[in-house]
Specification:
alpha/beta, Rossmann fold, five-stranded parallel beta sheet, 8 helices, globular
Length: 175
């Protein structure tokens, strides 16, 4: 398709937001490869920088401390002069500071959206997601209900991922 990446300017970041398990990291990697850019994965940066997993940070310091780190790395990525493909943490939209930064950054923000029922199957056995320990299906339903308007608020584009291959999602993003 001619000009498939034309929607994404050469000088702007691409930021993926969405629920845990929706495929932000996977899609970000493929899109970055297609655009010849570096991936900035919020969770991976936090884990690398602080030498602990997300689960360990939650357990030792609590959710508020993790959210502060999430904001720190998001703002760092958005401030980069190098155009990046950013895989935002699932809860990045919970902070008004983050939402304002996403909207004012000039980045192209893509909400990867899936039905919470789809996500339950994807996150099974994912021990690195402490918020899903007790009731994955109920928690994902509640999170979606609580976050849907926030994702819409920051999104320049919404790409549905249910029953779509990675390549189908990537093509939709690049369109």
């Amino acid at each position: 398709m001619p000009g498939a990446a034309a929607v994404i300017r050469a000088d702007e970041h691409v930021v993926f937001v969405g629920m845990m398990g929706v495929g932000k990291t996977t899609i970000a990697r493929v899109v970055a490869d297609r655009l010849g850019r570096r991936v900035f994965d919020s969770d991976a940066v936090i884990e690398s920088r602080y030498g602990r997993t997300v689960r360990e940070i939650f357990a030792a310091d609590g959710e508020a401390a993790f959210r502060a780190l999430e904001t720190e790395v998001l703002l760092e990525a958005l401030a980069s002069t190098e155009p990046l493909v950013i895989a935002g943490a699932g809860g990045v939209v919970l902070s008004e500071t983050n939402r304002e930064a996403l909207k004012s950054s000039g980045a192209k923000v893509v909400w990867l959206c899936a039905d919470p029922a789809t996500l339950v199957d994807r996150v099974k056995g994912g021990g690195h997601r402490p918020l899903l320990d007790d009731d994955p299906a109920g928690t994902l339903q509640r999170m979606f209900r609580d976050r849907e308007a926030l994702y819409r608020e920051v999104a320049d584009a919404i790409v549905l991922v249910d029953n779509r291959s990675v390549s189908d999602v990537v093509e939709a993003v690049l369109r």
